[in-house]
Design a protein that fits this description.
Layout lengths: L5 H10 L3 E5 L3 H9 L4 E4 L3 H4 L11 H13 L5 E5 L9 H13 L5 E5 L5 H9 L4 E6 L5 H4 L9 H17 L3 E5 L3 H10 L4 E4 L7 E4 L1 H4 L17 H17 L14 H10 L6
Helix pairs in contact: 2-4, 5-6, 8-9
The chain binds 3-methyl-2-oxobutanoic acid (KIV).
């Protein structure tokens, strides 16, 4: 696969080619996703729920995302790498946002950043784009505002609320965003937004009419038993694969079946003869 750039992602919308985006947080997974031709790897703040054991994305720090982004970069993917700017890493001031987005590119190796929200963050998006850093917007359900939104609820369910989202999408496009994640909105709302802007929309829980789709990798691979939102399709049952492998390994160890000769190292017969000739059993 040729290296993906924001320019190529834009061309995909123009040609009507669907964009494939998934999250990754480590080098080997990033390598696999790239080999499978995934267009965009998002190093999401979902690392908080997926890997770090948090209940939400709020506790995730900039250093956390940079750490995982750098690992993804070391995996050498040809997919476009987008670093997710975590809670409060871009809202204090435009200066703070510029400094932190700069770190995401310099230390994390990201090629673009993702920023949640519209309204108040529009001048920030403009300043980041002005600094030469591509920005992916994120509207609809924005998990970093979960306390303000009052829970993980579908957004833009009424005609009026859908129109607000369309307006936000247009404003983000005008501010220079190169693409837009639309999370947890009705199919009709996402379709309206997708038709209203020229930049690619990437949906999660937003129906089939977006220009691309994103899922959190561990959700679609079935790592979590307790997490089953309607919009996640489980493409594998990795949890069962891990459980079965760990149980088999534990049984083998307990029964002395592992390691066997195939998984152990031996001396040459000559050396072992010398060793046992010199050292008597129970000799310390
Ligand atoms: O952090 C993340 O993984 C995300 C996706 C759900 C879009 O923001």
């Amino acid at each position: 696969m040729a290296r993906k750039t924001t320019h190529k992602i834009q061309l995909m919308k123009e040609k009507g080619q669907k964009i494939v985006m998934l999250t990754a947080y480590d080098a080997p997974t990033a390598k696999i996703l790239s080999e499978c031709g995934v267009d965009i790897i998002l190093v999401g703040d979902s690392v908080g729920n997926s890997l770090l054991g948090y209940e939400s994305t709020i506790p995730v720090t900039l250093d956390d995302v940079i750490h995982h982004c750098a690992a993804v970069k070391r995996g050498g993917p040809k997919s476009l790498i987008v670093g997710d700017m975590p809670f409060m890493s871009y809202k204090v001031s435009i200066e703070q946002a510029l400094e932190n987005c700069g770190r995401m590119l310099q230390e994390g190796g990201a090629e673009a950043v993702k920023i949640e929200g519209a309204g108040r963050v529009l001048p920030t998006v403009e300043a980041i784009v002005d600094a030469g850093i591509p920005v992916m917007g994120h509207i609809g359900l924005t998990p970093q505002s979960i306390f303000e939104l009052g829970g993980y609820r579908v957004q833009g369910r009424t005609a009026d609320k859908a129109e607000v989202l369309v307006e936000q999408a247009k404003q983000l496009e005008s501010a220079g965003a190169f693409s837009l994640v639309i999370e947890l909105v009705p199919t009709e709302t996402a379709k309206l937004i997708t038709e209203a802007v020229n930049i690619p929309t990437i949906g999660i829980g937003a129906g089939p009419h977006c220009d691309g789709q994103v899922l959190v990798l561990w959700d679609m691979l079935g790592l979590f038993e307790e997490f089953k939102p309607k919009f996640v399709k489980k493409y594998a049952d990795i949890r069962s694969v891990i459980v079965n492998a760990v149980r088999e390994y534990s049984d083998d160890v307990r029964q002395g079946k592992f390691p066997d000769a195939d998984h152990s190292f031996e001396m040459s017969e000559e050396e072992s003869g010398r060793l046992y000739g010199r050292i008597k059993p129970n000799d310390n």
